[in-house]
Amino acid sequence: MFRTTKLALVLALAALSSAAAAQAATDAEKRACQHDVARHCRSVMHESEQRVGQCLIVNAAYLSKACQQVLRNHGQL
Question: Both ends of the chain: CA-CA distance in Å?
Fold first, then answer.
């Protein structure tokens, strides 16, 4: 359970570029990318939030539609 919570937190911080935007992330947005981080960014998921965010952007074409939309909503795509 702790690992899932940590993953969701890392994801939320990684997907958002500013502190103001980070505060706006909803639980639904965090969940939308949780699987994508585990699947496409596992190798960097325990590194910095920036690295996870960069990984998501690099792999954008392979992400779920929901995760792509979260990134778009926060100006990452």
Answer: 30
